[in-house]
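JOB MANIFEST
job_type = single_chain_structure
chain_count = 1
residues = 311
[input]
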Amino acid sequence: MSAAPQATTQLHPAGPPTDVILHVRVLDNGGQWGIGVLGDDGSLHIRTGEVHAQESFGATRTEAVLAAFSAVLEVAAEHQYVMLDVSNILVRKAIAGMIDGVPNVFLSETTAICGHRTAVVKALEEMPVSTEARLNPNARSMVVSTDASIANGGQVAGLGWVVAAEDGTVLSCGQRTAEVARTGDILTGELLAIRWAVQSLISRHPVPVEGQGTVVVQSDSKAALRVVRIIGAYRLPSSFNAEQIKLAKRILEETRHIPIVFRWVKGHRGDEGNEAADRLAVLARRNREFGVTTEVGTRMFRDLRDELVAA
């Protein structure tokens, strides 16, 4: 009678681990990855990178995961063992299938210190979107409408944007959420909405250069447009915080090759682009606040997107 198979337990090497936080995100124009290596003194050393867009969202994510894991292996080669925390469940499953052959890399069973994970995510969000100033025969003038939504006393901002042709035909739209540092900080939310709209525009559409047309970015936030205008005039505003100034600088840096105009529109007064951006922003915020699942939230966004594009 054969003996029953013995269960094996994976043992960690002796000594303290080197903690590594890994985060991956996929954009329209490619994938980005970041790892944060926690030092013995508590300091966090962040490394980021990007990969080109593949034929599908999943393939792009896979390329980013492979690039991130290569960076983890470089850390593992210099340390006794690595305890790896992965922020996304799908990415975690992909990593789990790759570490079998790496004896000194282990998946953490607990969540990374929130502040460290947030720092890695923030480093990725601050990576610039590359643009090239070149003629494109398909480029045309466009109108980009943006809006943000924050509930009273809330720190979660819903962001929405719509990209349309000059005749009002909706070309694309998007939404997401973001956390703001101060309760009810709608100005930071409005600037975030403008920046994400600009990134979506650059990555998804042939954007004009001088002589090909104009991009009009419209917002119902006079304060957001004011800080962008002041920074664009190379003056230092005194009534805005450091995060808002940094966002305005990034917006201008990422649109430096585009003939762009920033325009104020009165909110909730019938402008179709503004109304659509508002609906997207409110939907994103409410879905997060009410704990709507990703699957349901994605379906609701697609239904609204299809409605806007068909209008």
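[summary]
The two ends are 73 Å apart (CA to CA).
Residues 18-125 form a domain with the Nucleotidyltransferase; domain 5 fold (CATH 3.30.420.10).
exit_status = 0
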